[in-house]
Fold these 3 entries.
Entry 1:
Amino acid sequence: MSRYRRRLPRTLVVRLDSAGDVLLAGPAVRAVAAGSAYTALLCGPQGAAAGRLLPGVDDVLTYDAPWVGLEPAPVTRPATRRLLRTLAAGRFDRALVLVSYHQSPLPIALLLKLAGVGWTAADSEDHPGALLDLRHHRRPGRHEVLAALELARAAGFSLPPGDDGGLRVTPPPCTAHLTGAEPYVVVHPGAAVPARTWSPGRAARGAAALAAAGYRVVVTGGPAERELTARVAGRHGLDLGGATDLRQLAGVLARARVVVAGNTGPAHLAAAVGTPVVSLFAPVVPAGRWAPHGVHLLLGDRAAPCAGTRARHCPVPGHPCLDGIDDADVLAAVAALWGSPANPLRRRRGQGEQKDRGAAV
C-alpha cells in the first residue's frame, strides 16, 4: 500500500436492509472506497450477498439488526457483544450509516460509538445528541441512490473521475449454460412484499402473452419461489426458480434483453448490470425514491388508493394497480426497450405506441 493510501481512513459503510437496498448504496460505497484505505460494508443477512457484488468493498460484515426487516431478530446481549468485538477489531476511523427516509440511524450509531468508531455520519430527522458527528438532512423526495451519494459527499467522499454514479456490480459469470444462447426476456414474479409485484396468476398470464408474441421467456426466482416460478413459466417459459445464487442471477439478468419485475431487488440488480427494466411499480412506496435507477419504464397506476400506504399486502381487492395492467401495455414496454431489428413484435405485430400507463424514469 502506498504512503498516500495509508494516510486515508479505514471506513465502514452501514446498510442493514435487503439486497435491493444494498445495491442502491453501491455508488456511495464507490465514493467512499475512492477516498479510503480500506472499506468494509456492514449488512443484514438479506443484503450480504449483494454487498459482496459491489465494487470497492474490501470486506462484508453481517449483523441481524433487531430494528430492521419484516421479521426482526430478537435483542440479545451475545449478538450485540459479537458485533461490538467485530467493529472494534476493524479499527474504523469513520462510518457512514445509510438509511431510508423513514428509518433512524441512531441505534447503530450508538453501537458504533461503543465499539470505538471515531466519527459517524448519517441522515437523521431525530436529534442525535452525541451519537453523530455529522447530522445530514436529505433533500425531500430524493432517490435512495442520490440521497446516499449526497451524504457521502457531505462526509468528504466523492466519486472518482469517470464514474457516472450509476448502479454497478462486479462482472457476473457467464450463464449461457443455464439460459441458452438465444435472446430472451426475464420475468421475475416474486418479491419479499406481495403488494409490490404481480399476483401469481397475473404473472403467469403476462409470461404467456410475451411467449405468444414471440419472445423467449426466462422466469427467475429464489429457492423458496420454485412453486411460483413453475406456475409462471408453465409450458411457455424456461423455469430457473432456485437455480441461481445472487451472482449467477446477475449473469442471467445481464444476458437478458429486458427484465420484467416488480419493486424488488432483482430489478435493481438488472439495472446494475445494464439491462433495461419494465418495472411493475406499485405506489405503496414512492417511485421517485425506489424505482430502478437509470432509464427504464414504469407500469402501474400510481394514483391507486394504496398510494403511500407502505402496505405489504394489497389493501384493494383485485390488486388493480398492477394486476390491472393490460398485456398490450407490457408488450409495448418490452418492445420499446428491446431495441433490436430482430424484435419479434416488429416482425409479427408492429411495435405500436406505448400507452399512458407507462412512464420513463
Entry 2:
Amino acid sequence: MAIHLTKESKVLVQGMTGGEGMKHTRRMLAAGTDVVGGVNPRKAGRTVDFDDRAVPVFGSVADGIRATGADVTVVFVPPAFARSAVVEAADAGIGLAVVITEGIPVHDSVAFTTHARRKGTRVIGPNCPGLITPGQSNAGIIPADITKPGPVGLVSKSGTLTYQLMYELRDIGFSTCVGIGGDPVVGTTHIDCLAAFQDDPDTDLVVLIGEIGGDAEERAAAYIREHVTKPVVAYIAGFTAPEGRTMGHAGAIVSGSSGTARAKKEALEAVGVRVGGTPTETARHVLAVLEAGR
C-alpha cells in the first residue's frame, strides 16, 4: 500500500504545456504515473506527444475529470495563477492537488488551502517536490530512479533532503515519500503524514525531516507521543544557522530559542525519536531501528 498516491491514481497536470510542465510530465510518465491529461484553456482539444503516449489537453480541470476520472492534479503554473488553479481544481472535486510552484504569496496560500479544505481536497505544498510511491506513481519533481519500494515512509519540508535520504536508504526502499514544502503555510503537515503512515500496513518506520523555523516539528513530537506507535527517526536542518535570519524557505526564521534546531531535536528525542546529526547518521539510525525490529 501507500499514502495519498498509488498506481491507481489518475493524474492531471495544470501547466503541462509549459516548459517545466512538459519536462516533468515526461519524467512522471517514465516513472509509471498514469498522466491522463493536461489543463490549459488556450490549448484545449490538442494532444501532446510524450515518447509513446499522447496526452490530451483539457480546457478546465472539470473537463479533465469528466473525461478521464482524474483524482490528482499537479500544479506547475506561475505564482500569480496558482491560487486560481488550486481553487478551480478544488471546485471541480479533485481529491489531491500537488502544488509545485514556489514564490506564491502567503495570503494566496492561505486562501487556496482554506478553500481546498472546505471542498475536501488535500493540498500538498506549495513550494514542494511533490510525492512518490516508488514503483507505482510519481506526482511532482522527485527523481524516481534513486530508490525502490520498501517499508520506510518519509515526510519532509525540504526537497533536497528528501532526495538525499531516499538515496541514502535506496537499498531499503520506501512506501511513500512526501515533500510537504517549507513555506509558512502548507496544505499537508508532518502530523497529517504521520497519521497516514501510522495507518498504512506497509510502512514499518517513518523518517521525518524538519528544519529551523516555526513549531511544526514540536507539534509533530506531541502528536507522536499520543498517537504514533511505529518508530520515527528524524533529521533537523539548520543547527548552524544564525539567529534572526531567514534561511532557505520562507518559514525558516529563528527568534531567540523559538524554532531552533536544538529545541526541535530535544522535543523529538523526548518522545523517543532518534534524531540524526547529519543525513547519513539519520540513515544509520533507520537501519539500526529496522535491524533491531527483525
Entry 3:
Amino acid sequence: MGARRSLGRQFGWLWAAYAVSAFGTWLAFDAFPIIAIVVLHAGSAEVSLLAAAGLAVGAMVAVPLGPWMEFRRKRPVMIAMDVVRFAALMTVPVLFLLDRLTFAQLVVVSVVVSAADIAFTAASGACLKALMPGDDLLVANGRFESTAWTATMVGPPIGGAAVGLFGPVMTVAANAVSFLLSAAGIRAIGGAEPRPARTGTPSRLRAGDLLEGWRYILTHPALRPLFFNTVLVGGLIMATAPLLAVLMLGDLGFAPWQYALAFALPCVGGLIGSRLSPRLVARFGRHRVMLTTGALRACWLPGLAFVRPGVAGLVLVMAVELGLICCMGVFNPVYATYRLERTPADRVARTLSAWSVSSKATIAALTALWGLLAGVTGPRIAVAIAGLLSLATPLLLPRHEQAPLPEQEPAASHS
C-alpha cells in the first residue's frame, strides 16, 4: 500500500537529506572509540565514559532546545543543527593533523553532536508532520525506517573497510561532510514555510516551558504508556549491546568479523518490516498492528542469553536479531505516526525533544547500570535479566485506540 507512490518533491529532498546523514553516521559508527583507543591510548573506563557522556550530557544540553525551536521555522533549525554537527566533527581531523587532538575534545564533540541530534530529530518530526497529510505520514515514516535499517546494515562494514584503508579520522570527516550535504538537501526542499503562531504563549522562554514536552506526554492517556514502553525497550536493548560484545568476542571467542556479521545481516528484517508496515495497517488496523508488533518485539531479547560458541551460536544470534528487528521495522513507523497524529502542531518539537532526551538518558543510565550488574553476575546473566524485564514491557502499550487530532490548517505569523 503506497510503497512505490510518489510523496512529492519536498518529501524527496527531506528523505534524501535523512539518507545521506544516516549513512554518514553509520559509516563512522565506531570511529570515536577506535580513535580513543588507537590514537589516544585510552583505557576501557575512558571509552565507556566517552559513550555515556555523549548520551547523558548531550541529553541535558538539549533540554531547552525543544521549547526554543517550537515557534521557529523548522527547516532553518534543521540546517543549523546540520552545520553545528559538521563544524564539531571537523574539529577532530583538523586537530589530529595539528597533533592537538585530546580525549577531552572527543568528549566535547560527542556531547555537541548528541544534543544537535536531538534538536534535529525533533525539528524534522515537526517538518514531516507539516509536509505529509493523512495516510502519507505512515508511508513516509516507513521509508525513513527502511533507510535507517539499510544504513545500519551496510554502513558499519563499509566504515570498517574505510578505517582499515584510511584510518578512523577520515571516517569522521566523511560523516561531517554528510551533514553538510544533508543541510543542502533541506535547503533544496523549497516552498514557503510559515512561521508557527504563538497561541497564548509568552514570547520569552520561561523555566516552565522546559518541561512542557514531558507535561504533555505524561498527561496524555495514549502517549504516556507508549512513552514508557519505547524508552524502556530501547534502553534494555541498548544496555545489552556492550555485554554481548564482551560475551561473544571475549568469553565465546568469536572473531570480530563474525560478531559484525551477526548484527549486520539481520538488519534486512528492518527492510522487510518497514515494507510490510503499511500493508499490515491497511488490513488489520493501526492500533492492532502497533499492539501486536510492540508485544512481539519484546519477546526476542531473552534468546540472546543462550548464545553458544561456534556456528550454532552465530545462527542463534542472527535468528533472534532478525525476529527482533523485523518486529521493530513494522512497529517503529506505526508508533512514530501514531505519536505525531496525537500531538498538536504547536507542541510537536517540545514533545519529540522530550521523548529523545528521555530515551538517550535512559540508554546511558541502563548501559552504566547493566555494566555494573555484569561485573557482579557476568554478562550472560545480565543479558538474561534484561530479557526477562523486556517481557513485561507490553503491559505499557496503550490498550485502547484514541482518535488522532483533527487536521488543522497551519497557522502563520510574520516576523
